[in-house]
Design a protein that fits this description.
Helix 3 packs parallel to helix 12, helix 7 runs antiparallel to helix 9 and helix 17 runs antiparallel to helix 18. Helix content is 75%, strand content 0%. The protein is mainly alpha-helical and 492 residues long. It has one domain. It contains 24 helices and no strands.
Length: 492
């Protein structure tokens, strides 16, 4: 059977089918939707899309190859997710997270907490180039500090994510910051400088909003007695001396020194186990249930913390809930979600339906403003359907590269738009690799933190505004076109 090019209407049917299924699952299953229903919905939509594609003449082998290719793109994310699960468990057992919480409660106050959280996460991610490493280390402790102060966890997660994605977007060490200019056809540092115009104002507005909210909330839920109860409970079970903060400093230093994320995080797991054995004998013995054999207790506790997470028993329910987390096992439902999303995205891409939808959008993008709007919209659509920020950047960049040249616009305008939407909106989609990671790592549902990810929400609209007004939209300089077609590879 001859393979047909899918029509726009036919290409949209699987997307509408998926949206309908996801909405139905949310209404029926509520908070339990990410524990299986969303995954089944994505797989069902993938099968539905595959049936349409095969009816149009696409072979199953083509679709399968595309699915496997999409899953391979997500494999690094899956490995990091597994290691982060182990890192959380071992860092709680090792007293690292408890120490971060105790010291954070001593230093921070509710009025500046959200502002400081966003700012600190921005600095860490700018230094490391990784929003995921930032959330899995300092972000994890900040969630606990905010919860103890009575600040809604969704609001704290929004501040963490806003800060973490500022650095992820602006750091020359970030993979997306290098990927976007490569797809657009410009160089890394032109791209970073050009993003300052949209990301800078967006970050300033975000910090001001967090500061205003912090002062508005100051004192509403803050209780010194509650803080003392939490810190006393933690100190009663863990050694929270200042030297317990050495492992996160070392991990951040390793990432800054360009050591790949996976070895750096594995080293972090090892340090968590080591610090547990050396400095947390009480927690290790109690968790392992081996009060008379510390060697056996150390082995059992380290393995269980990494495999299944830590289970706290301080006698204070709030602290037990805060510190009973982590473990590779508890990441498996998130991995299932990612692979289900990759299955749907693979069928949509392999069948040509994603490309058909995007090409239809391109037909109406005949002004600068509409071209930027189309780029932003397509990136968001790819994050919703292809379910991965890398695919959103690669596919959208590949599609619009010639359109920007035809419009006589410098490629750095395209690379900026790719990051303004492709990078930043990925974390707002529950089944996207980034959304799934953040909700699992921080323990906050995507729908709970989404309204407070101010940077991620504001930045795309600033980019669209610039497109329609022409502000900072750099023209393609005569003689630069050939250079931009084949930019020199970045040292980063």
């Amino acid at each position: 059977m001859t393979k047909k090019t899918p029509s726009l209407l036919l290409s949209l049917i699987p997307v509408l089918f998926l949206i309908g299924l996801l909405v139905l699952c949310v209404r029926v299953f509520g908070d339990g939707v990410s524990g299986g229903p969303n995954q089944v919905a994505l797989m069902t939509a993938a099968i539905f899309a595959a049936l349409i594609a095969m009816w149009q003449g696409c072979s199953w082998q083509e679709l399968q190859d595309s699915i496997l290719k999409n899953i391979s793109v997500a494999m690094q994310a899956i490995l990091i997710l597994l290691i982060i699960g182990g890192l959380i468990g071992t860092w709680i057992l090792g007293g690292i997270v408890p120490a971060l919480v105790v010291w954070g409660l001593k230093i921070l106050t509710p009025s500046i907490f959200l502002f400081a959280t966003c700012f600190v996460c921005a600095l860490v991610s700018l230094a490391t180039g990784s929003s995921w490493s930032t959330a899995g280390t300092v972000g994890l402790a900040l969630i606990g500090i905010g919860h103890t102060m009575g600040i809604p966890m969704g609001l704290t997660a929004g501040a963490i994510i806003s800060g973490a994605y500022f650095g992820d977007k602006m750091s020359p060490l970030s993979d997306t910051t290098n990927l976007a200019p490569a797809m657009a056809g410009t160089d890394l540092f032109s791209h970073v400088r050009h993003m300052v115009y949209t990301t800078g104002p967006s970050m300033i507005i975000s910090l001001l909003l967090f500061l205003i909210i912090g002062f508005w909330m100051d004192g509403e839920s803050y209780s010194p007695e509650r803080i003392k109860q939490v810190t006393d409970a933690i100190n009663g079970k863990f050694n929270t001396a200042l030297y317990m903060l050495i492992p996160p400093v070392i991990v951040i230093w390793m990432v800054v020194r360009k050591i790949p994320a996976i070895p750096a995080l594995l080293a972090g797991c090892g340090m968590g186990m080591l610090f547990a054995v050396l400095f947390q004998p009480q927690a290790v013995s109690e968790f392992a249930g081996e009060p008379n054999n510390y060697a056996l207790a150390s082995f059992k506790a380290s393995i269980w913390a990494m495999a299944s997470g830590f289970k706290a028993s301080t006698g204070v329910p709030e602290v037990d809930s805060l510190l009973s987390r982590g473990g590779i096992y508890n990441m498996l439902s998130t991995i299932w979600l990612i692979m289900s999303a990759m299955m749907f995205g693979g069928v949509m891409e392999g069948s040509g339906m994603l490309m058909k939808i995007a090409q239809s959008v391109l037909k109406v993008a005949y002004t600068t403003g509409r071209l930027v709007l189309a780029t932003i919209g397509t990136s968001v659509f790819m994050n919703l359907t292809a379910s991965d920020q890398y695919l959103a950047i690669v596919i959208t960049g590949r599609m619009y590269r010639e359109a920007y040249r035809d419009a006589k616009l410098d490629p750095k305008n395209l690379s900026r738009a790719l990051e303004d939407a492709g990078t930043l909106t990925s974390v707002l989609v529950p089944w996207n690799t980034c959304g799934a990671f953040m909700s699992t790592t921080l323990g906050v549902a995507t729908t709970a933190y989404l309204p407070f990810c101010f940077l991620n929400l504001i930045n795309p609209f600033v980019s669209i505004l610039y497109g329609f007004t022409g502000w900072t939209m750099a023209p393609l300089v005569e003689g630069e076109e050939e250079k931009n077609r084949n930019p020199e590879p970045s040292a980063a």
